[in-house]
Amino acid sequence: MKNFTILLLLIVSFSSCKQDKKEEIEEPENTELNQTENKNFTLKVNKIDSTQFPGSIKYEGFIKNAVRWKDKLGDNIVITTETGYHFNNKFKHESDDSSDAELFAYHFIISGNQPKQTWKVYDFISDCPVDIVASFVKNTFAVTDLNNNGIAETWLMYKTVCHGDVSPSDMKIIMYEGNQKYAMRGENKVQVGTYENGEKQFIGGEFKFDENFKKAPKVFKEYAQNLWHKNLMETWEN
Q1: Confidence at 166, pLDDT banded by 50, 70, 90
Q2: In CA terms, which of 109, 183, 195, 203 is 20 to 30 Å from 116?
Q3: Per residue in 184-194, pLDDT tens?
Q4: pLDDT band at 6 (very low <50, low <70, confident <90, very high)
């Protein structure tokens, strides 16, 4: 009986050790596989022009950025455009002196040289009789893979305003990862005067994350905040 008890304990102990060892092996193997896949993925973004678009791609406005890259979603093209000052009959106008300005961004997945539009960003200012802006902020367009998951993020930052005074512009950062949209909205910052003690007086500069950004990976929020603060001050240049 004593020998049987010892044998039973040995069997249980061996079984437990074997199970623990299996669990220890499985987790590192899965982690190593993911690390290898991410390590081997290199995001290469190439600038293109309209002569390199598939013939069936349609867009409005004048091209500001056009890029192409491949990731886990496939063969991607993103185009950003602006109309600049113009008069668009689709808007109602109170005066012949008013103007409109629109901006667009398009994302396509290309398969067999056929594009499929997966998202579009559109914003505008209409019927503006004074200074009008609807334009992307210079040097802010970017395509990244900050979370190293093999799916690129597309970053758009732009301003819209109709004003005849010194006041902030509405400012937005829109980011897409696949079909998931993230938005950061607020105003840029302008100097409106000086206090009696010589300190400069500013207004604007605040922003809010949408719910998707609030729940986003830390690296997304940090990138967005850095981009916002870098372009916070109004320079009076489009």
Answers
A1: confident
A2: 183
A3: 999 999 988 88
A4: very low
CA distance 170 to 205: 10
d(Cα 176, Cα 107) in Å, to the nearest integer?
9
Q: Which amino acid is at 218?
A: K
User: In what helix (H) or strand (E) does residue 15 lie, and over which residues does it extend?
Assistant: helix 2-40
In this structure, the number of other CB atoms found within 10 A of the CB of residue 104 comes to: 19
Residues 6 or more apart whose CB falls under 8 angstroms from that of 49 comprise: 63, 66
Question: Which structure tokens are listed for 212?
Answer: 């998707």
> Considering only CA atoms, which of 64, 106, 99 is closest in space to residue 82?
64
Q: What is the DSSP string of 89-140?
A: TTS--S-TT-EEEEEEEEEEEEETTEEEEEEEEEEEEEEESSEEEEEEPTT-
Of the pLDDT bands very low, low, confident and very high (cuts 50, 70, 90), residue 72 is: very high
d(CA 116, CA 31): 34
79 Cβ neighbours under 8 A, 6+ residues apart: 53, 57, 59, 63, 65, 66, 104, 105, 106, 108
